């Protein structure tokens, strides 16, 4: 634990670098506790307290367990660490959750009570758009206000003015492996379709969409299989991408694709499968 690191400064750095962490805040204490209301700590995914203070071993274990759970499911939780007799009076067992509160037993002689709010701070979901078509540019423009970290991958010669995106890649070479949520959309529309699809299917992604007709998608799949791309990799591609909104304009098509991505993303956060949606 690095007590000298300022919590708010480190929060800003971690958020700007798109790193996941948990902010734990003591919101209430009763009787004798090591940390008092208002104390904060930053917890990394490996369980290390990177900055701040939330008390000693009496509270730390329960808070770190809750932090791990919050990073896994993306949900904040309130942890109430109380002496065993108070838990018995409430009729709850250590580890039980009730009314939005997760209870834990304080094993320390001080027998104080401490409530800690555990809040996950997750990187923005990443959207990588391949191509410089009107649909690709509309996707990039619409996705940023929705909270996506947007990368546009396209040959520089295909672009006019620099688009307002977080990252710009000259060509289609993207990192095959990254942490966090990642959604890929190929919207090359005749300018580098095969190269973009090859790059997309070689990358880890929660979704790969192709903007084009069923016929065009089928033809590209056949061409890519003939040059050695595995059919299972190509089966990951949703083509045509997007929900059936009857979209016509580039902006409407982009909206339909983003609606599909958001539906998939939120469904996953609720723990539902595609069949349950």
Structure overview:
The chain has helices at 7-16, 57-73, 84-90, 134-143, 193-201, 214-226, 231-234, 250-269, and strands spanning 21-30, 40-43, 49-52, 77-82, 97-98, 101-105, 113-121, 126-130, 149-154, 167-170, 182-186, 207-210, 237-238. The longest helix is centred in the last third of the chain and has 20 residues, at 250-269. A hairpin with a 5-residue loop joins β2 and β3 (49-52). It is built from eight helices and 13 strands. The mean pLDDT is 90. Strands 3-2-1-7-4-6-5 form a seven-stranded mixed beta sheet, sandwiched between helices. Strands 10-9-8-11-12-13 form a six-stranded parallel beta sheet, with helices on both faces. It is 32% helix and 24% strand. The protein is of the alpha/beta class and 277 residues long.
List the helices and strands and how they pair.
Layout: H1 7-16, E1 21-30, E2 40-43, E3 49-52, H2 57-73, E4 77-82, H3 84-90, E5 97-98, E6 101-105, E7 113-121, E8 126-130, H4 134-143, E9 149-154, E10 167-170, E11 182-186, H5 193-201, E12 207-210, H6 214-226, H7 231-234, E13 237-238, H8 250-269
Parallel strand pairs: 4-6, 8-9, 8-11, 9-10, 11-12, 12-13
Antiparallel strand pairs: 1-2, 1-7, 2-3, 4-7, 5-6
Helix pairs in contact: 4-8
Find the count of extended strands (DSSP E, 2+ residues). Answer: 13
Question: What's the SSE pattern?
Answer: HEEEHEHEEEEHEEEHEHHEH
- Shape summary: elongated
Assign the structural class, choosing from mainly alpha, mainly beta, alpha/beta, alpha+beta, or little secondary structure: alpha/beta
Alpha-carbon distance between the two ends:
43 Å
Mean pLDDT: 90
Annotation field: number of helices? 8
Which runs of at least 5 residues are low in confidence (pLDDT < 50)? none
How much strand content do the residues show? 15-25%
Q: What's the gyration radius in Å?
A: 24 Å
Helix content: 25-40%
Q: Main sheet: which strands, in order across?
A: 3-2-1-7-4-6-5
Largest sheet: 7 strands, mixed
């Amino acid at each position: 634990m690095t007590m000298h690191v300022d919590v708010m400064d480190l929060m800003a750095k971690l958020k700007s670098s798109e790193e996941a962490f948990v902010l734990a805040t003591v919101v209430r204490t009763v009787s004798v506790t090591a940390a008092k209301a208002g104390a904060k700590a930053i917890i990394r995914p490996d369980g290390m307290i990177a900055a701040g203070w939330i008390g000693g071993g009496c509270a730390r274990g329960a808070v770190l367990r809750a932090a791990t759970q919050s990073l896994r499911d993306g949900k904040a939780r309130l942890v109430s660490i109380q002496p065993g007799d108070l838990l018995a009076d409430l009729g709850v067992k250590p580890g039980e959750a009730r009314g939005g509160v997760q209870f834990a037993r304080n094993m320390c002689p001080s027998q104080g009570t401490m409530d800690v709010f555990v809040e996950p701070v997750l990187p923005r979901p990443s959207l990588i758009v391949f191509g410089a078509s009107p649909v690709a540019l509309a996707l990039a423009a619409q996705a940023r206000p929705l909270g996506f970290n947007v990368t546009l991958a396209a040959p520089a010669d295909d672009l006019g003015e620099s688009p307002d995106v977080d990252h710009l890649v000259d060509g289609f070479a993207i990192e095959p492996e990254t942490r966090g949520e990642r959604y890929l959309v190929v919207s090359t529309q005749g300018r580098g379709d095969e190269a973009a699809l090859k790059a997309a299917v070689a990358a880890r992604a929660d979704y790969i969409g192709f903007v084009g007709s069923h016929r065009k998608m089928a033809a590209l799949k056949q061409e890519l299989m003939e040059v050695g791309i595995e059919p299972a990799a190509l089966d990951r591609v949703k083509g045509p991408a997007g929900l059936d909104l009857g979209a016509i304009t580039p902006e409407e098509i982009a909206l339909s694709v983003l609606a599909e991505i958001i539906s998939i993303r939120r469904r996953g956060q609720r723990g539902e499968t595609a069949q349950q949606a």
